[in-house]
């Protein structure tokens, strides 16, 4: 059959690489274009440790938790929801969306919730995955076997307490953004928030109006801007945030799929347009830096000194950009102290900074992020009992972010080098799922017992990633979970290219990049 061009040649092909308005607007229309692979009857079981589906959107319950990608993009291509109640939807609304999708498409019958996977081992004798799990309710440990294993365990799931000296000596309330205790009443309290990543940026403006005092500890600087600074314009009641639609037209989108698609295209175009900003030395990067500096200073004009503590020396998008509606404004409020001095230790009653000052508080919120090293607490053992954690200790690598050699019939949702630095992750998740289905369909129809990428394909892709990232701002020096929480080093979390590029590459598997064993 016809050879599918490699990801490299696809990237070199300017026609594919170039982001033109047409191509961008095609995204929202085109991402259901792929034909669904014909998977024959499957015995499918979905295990999840939580008692409800939804993952991130079920687990994260901190005040202000929302998606900072526009809701009209952050949805499935085949299940558009024109009724999102705000531009950036809040976590509970997103969770309801996913529950309704699961109910509508009859997914729940496959789900066994409240079961946590402990480990998975490839059993060479029978060519199957043996997965050990525990039923959280009964504590019963049990095993399941499968021909193929898909892991969708999330790259931002394993939260940890930061290694701040004496943190656990604190006698007030200690909270983590990713494991929020909703029973804690923070109203009228003195609260410290450590961390200015996407989580901290959402927590601060949500707590600020209700607390007596908020101390915000900022270790690393951060750019606060969205491709959608327009939301700010929206607040000024002009029409810009409606993307050219009158308020009335926008309200009517619920009843008008054609106009809704046009509306989505405009938002998608703006979102995808951010890609060029990631290119080191590009004019777009230069302009973004100027614009963002100007916008941040404007929003902080009531307390200009805060801008001096916050404005980064690294380029925008080096670490994940977040629009932070209300964040900078909250930092200028009278009850907020921005503390750029580093923390030296925690005491029973508060935090001591390196200048020797002690700041008493009732609660400490750690919005300090996740373990993003790809070292999973759910170990996987492949051929010859090799552990995936061991394999990835120095360098998490994969074939197209989805498979690894030595781990047959194993597919990963959001493995190394599959996230997007700009753009909409759900589009990738959808493509990856279709890719897995193509592999399963091929196994079913061609008597394939095992499929795994060739070692050379993994190596090529990893080399390609390293080459690609050299030309992007992701490799600049800034502390980022894209580099496993480090300031420098390999970009292990991101896809090497634009969303369009990812869509093209994931559209059709290159079967020659895989090795196979056939049923005898
Ligand atoms: O975590 P982060 P996050 N002492 O790692 C600081 C997704 N997400 O939970 O920059 C003092 O980004 C650390 O400082 P520094 C999204 O993809 C999405 O906020 O390393 N400070 C940083 O400021 C996001 O990118 C949404 O110097 C310490 C912060 O804590 C990802 O999750 C919403 C410290 C950690 O920032 C992670 O975001 C929320 C220490 N010991 C999250 N350790 C959406 O809306 C760390 N810090 C889609």
UniProtKB/TrEMBL annotation:
Top-level taxonomic group: Eukaryota
Record-linked Gene3D superfamilies: FAD/NAD(P)-binding domain
Family under the similarity heading: Belongs to the FAD-binding monooxygenase family.
Descriptive protein name: Flavin-binding monooxygenase
């Amino acid at each position: 059959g016809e050879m599918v061009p490699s990801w490299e040649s696809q990237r070199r092909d300017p026609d594919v690489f170039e982001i033109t308005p047409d191509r961008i607007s095609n995204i929202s229309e085109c991402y259901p274009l792929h034909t669904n692979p014909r998977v024959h009857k499957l015995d499918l079981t979905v295990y999840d440790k939580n008692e409800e589906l939804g993952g991130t959107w079920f687990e994260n319950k901190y005040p202000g938790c929302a998606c900072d990608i526009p809701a009209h993009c952050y949805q499935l291509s085949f299940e558009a929801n024109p009724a999102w109640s705000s531009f950036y939807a809040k976590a509970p609304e997103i969770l309801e969306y996913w529950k309704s999708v699961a109910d509508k498409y009859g997914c729940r019958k496959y789900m066994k919730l409240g079961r946590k996977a402990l480990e998975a081992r490839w059993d060479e004798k029978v060519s199957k995955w043996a997965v050990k799990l525990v039923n959280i309710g009964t504590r019963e440990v049990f095993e399941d076997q499968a021909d193929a294993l898909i892991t969708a365990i999330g790259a931002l799931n394993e939260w940890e307490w930061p290694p701040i000296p004496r943190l656990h000596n604190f006698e007030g309330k200690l909270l983590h953004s990713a494991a929020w205790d909703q029973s804690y009443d923070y109203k009228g309290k003195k609260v410290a928030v450590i961390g200015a990543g996407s989580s901290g940026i959402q927590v601060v403006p949500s707590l600020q109006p209700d607390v007596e005092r908020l101390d915000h500890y900022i270790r690393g600087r951060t750019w606060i801007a969205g491709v959608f600074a327009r939301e700010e314009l929206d607040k000024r009641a002009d029409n810009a945030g409606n993307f050219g639609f009158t308020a009335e037209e926008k309200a009517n989108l619920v009843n008008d799929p054609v106009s809704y698609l046009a509306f989505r295209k405009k938002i998608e175009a703006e979102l995808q347009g951010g890609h060029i900003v990631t290119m080191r030395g590009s004019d777009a990067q230069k302009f973004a830096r100027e614009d963002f500096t100007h916008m941040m200073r404007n929003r902080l004009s009531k307390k200009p000194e805060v801008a001096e503590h916050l404005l980064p020396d690294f380029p925008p998008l080096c670490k994940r950009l977040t629009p932070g509606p209300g964040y900078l404004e909250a930092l200028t409020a009278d009850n907020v102290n921005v503390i750029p001095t580093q923390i030296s230790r925690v005491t029973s009653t508060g935090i001591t900074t390196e200048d020797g000052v002690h700041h008493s508080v009732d609660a400490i919120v750690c919005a300090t992020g996740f373990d993003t090293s790809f070292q999973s607490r759910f170990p996987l053992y492949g051929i010859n009992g090799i552990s995936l954690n061991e394999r990835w200790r120095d360098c998490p690598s994969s074939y197209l972010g989805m498979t690894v050699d030595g781990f047959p019939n194993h597919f990963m949702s959001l493995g190394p080098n599959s996230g997007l630095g700009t753009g909409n992750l759900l589009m990738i998740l959808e493509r990856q799922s279709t890719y897995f289905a193509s592999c399963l369909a091929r196994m079913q129809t061609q008597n394939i017992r095992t499929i795994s990428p060739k070692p050379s394909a993994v190596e090529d892709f990893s080399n390609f990633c390293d080459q690609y990232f050299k030309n992007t701002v992701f490799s600049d020096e800034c502390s980022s979970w894209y580099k496993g929480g480090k300031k420098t080093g390999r970009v292990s979390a991101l896809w090497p290219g634009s969303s369009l590029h990812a869509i093209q590459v994931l559209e059709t598997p290159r079967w020659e990049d895989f090795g196979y064993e056939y049923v005898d």
